[in-house]
Amino acid sequence: MRHGIITLFLALPLAAAFLLAAVGGAKRRFAEIVGVSSPLALLALAVYVFFVRGSEPLVYSFSGWPAPLGVVWVLDGLSMLMLLAANFVAAAVAVYSVGYMKSYTAPAKYYALFNLMVGAMNALALSGDIFNIYVFLEIASVAAYALAAFGLGRDELEASFKYVILGSTASAFILMGVAIIYSATGSLNLADIAAVLAARTADSSGGAIRLAALLMTSGFALKAGLVPFHAWLPDVHSSAPSPVSAMLSGMLIKVAGLYAMARIFFFIAPVARIMPNILVFLGVLSMIVGVLLALGQWDFKRLLAYHSVSQVGYIALGLGLGTPLGIAAGLYHLINHAVFKSLMFLNAGAVEYSAGTRDLKSAGGLAARMPVTGATSLTASLAIAGVPPLNGFWSKFMIIIAAFQAGRYFAGAAAAIVSVLTLASFLKVQKYVFWGKTKENLSSVKEVPLSMTLPMAALAVACVLLGIFYPVVRDTLIQPAAMVLVRALEYSAGAIK
Amino acid sequence: MRQNTPQGMSVIVKTVTRLTVRLIFLFGVYVILHGHLTPGGGFAGGVMLALAAVHVMLAYGRDTAMKELSFSGAQIFEGIGALAFLVIGLSGLAAGVFFKNYLAPGTPFEFLSGGTIIISNMAIGLKVMGGLFAIFVAMTFFQGGGTDDKK
Predict the structure, then answer these.
(1) Which residue of A has its CA nearest to B73?
(2) Which residues in B lie closer than 8 A to residue A4 (C-beta atoms)?
(3) Residue A75 touches chain B, beta carbons under 8 Å
(4) Chain B residues near residue A18 by CB distance under 8 angstroms
């Protein structure tokens, strides 16, 4: 494999985005072909790179300038995991958009923003220095602000405005953290920062790093939607167009929030020892508060959004435990949640598309009218609630075990109880939307077109396969990714040579 | 402050604009082309190019200015600028590494030096000009106190 191929993860979607931006008034068919083929090609590229990459992390220096002075991309197990997940979800959502976005105008602008967001997420996953992480975080966020407001309705604009203000504040915090780390260590390259900090005696720059770590925690926690930084998330994720919600809730909060946080913190965490405790605390708080708020919701998408807050808490808890099992469990749950939460938002979109409602009470008995949507939604509900053998079961089980092993009994117990409450909440969704007798005014509802059922079916199959082939997934994908974080310091020696 | 009416500002402003707008544009081009030698570059020069167009619009009013300048033109410039920048990066990839500077570096402080930097500056200048002007025009669409006057 020629190493330059990994730059296509950014170049390809950017080319599609700029082309569509240049021909803003293009025909819908052209916009769909360009806009959808790029995420599909990216998925193929991710799978190809997964099979041909070597066992060592691949370090790619832009314009040939070596690290730590030049800009580097690092393709290791963790980046590979994020690339596969992000591009899989993006490809499914892009195909789904063909049907769903028919009722919206300006398709070229939609696909341009969508590709920009996908490209920025890919580049974020590959970046090897904190400033580039910040830059791509901003590109992905700005595209997300615009996409969240794409319908231009009153709720959408209000939610998007809230998102812009809070998101920009978070970005400013992150940038300040980057600046402090740069001034304290003289480097932006992650591996170099880790090496500089490891060479120092314990407390010579501990204060500055702790301040930077706290600023970045606030910023990334807001991007991830952790309680108490979650206020924007239910509004934005429920009022955005459904494919956008699926992308935001499925991938963006994880890549821009949790992944970036993990990537940075596991390198500076040896200095800032408080970080794991903060992550565990925020994680448990998010799990409990998120699910309690979700229980009382009657808006389908708002309920899903509150569950995102709750499930992101599980991931933060797993990562915060810091044990190899905890990290692996957190990353596994990250992938699983990406698959089933994006599937559920697509289900909610399908219900809205066909039955014209997001209110749980005014829907009913739709499983008979919409068999694919009903079946995939049931799969996703069981997966998120952690019913074996679906994927959510394994990751939650691992998180609970890891919490007890690490001696955090309260966190483990909370994770188990929240899981039961999640099941209750999704049984409510199934009962009110899909089961029972079809309401009279919904008797003419039809299943959504093939371009929308196909991605939902693909995601549902992924839920099942990720669960059944759990040992294979663990050994080929999750363990290599977790090892990157566990051995953060050894990695650094490899990435700056 | 005087309201910017559709007819534009006073005759003094219009005359001065007519005299200076080409100079502003020329200075923007100069800043872009000398980005590798003097302060400034693609972004700063692109802002000046956009300001030349904004200047015409402020002095003559939106309706008159939009006969000469177009919103979709700005979008096309922006897209082409961005695509050109990407092509420079990809041509570097063809020569070995993404964004490799494969052209001869030349003598320092000569005009033709710096390899691909000068082309990159041109692409960025084009994008910034198109982008900033498009943002300005888009903002003038929404001046009517919340009503939609796109029609």
Answers:
(1) A22
(2) 93, 96-98
(3) no
(4) 79, 82-83, 86
Tell me the pLDDT tens digit for each residue of B75-108: 889 999 999 999 999 998 888 888 888 888 888 8
Residue A263 has pLDDT above 90, yes or no: no
Q: What is the pTM of this model?
A: 0.92
Report ipTM (2 d.p.): 0.86
- What is the pLDDT at residue B1? 41
A22–B80 C-beta distance less than 8 A: yes
Question: By CA distance, what is A2's nearest residue in B?
Answer: B96
Please state the domain extents for chain A.
Answer: 3-495
Nearest CB to B86 within list A18, A25, A64:
A18
For residues A8-42, one letter each, b for 16 or more C-beta atoms within 10 angstroms of the residue's C-beta and e for the rest, the string is: bbbbbbbbbbbbbbbbbebeeeebbebbbebbebb
Cβ distance B82 to A25 less than 8 Å, yes or no, reads no
Distance from CA of B11 to the nearest CA of A (A): 36
Nearest chain A CA: its distance from B61 CA (Å): 25
| pLDDT tens sequence across A108-145 | 999 999 999 999 999 999 998 899 999 999 999 999 99
Q: What average pLDDT does the segment A166-176 reach?
A: 95
Burial class (CB in 10 A: 0-12, 13-18, 19+), B30: middle
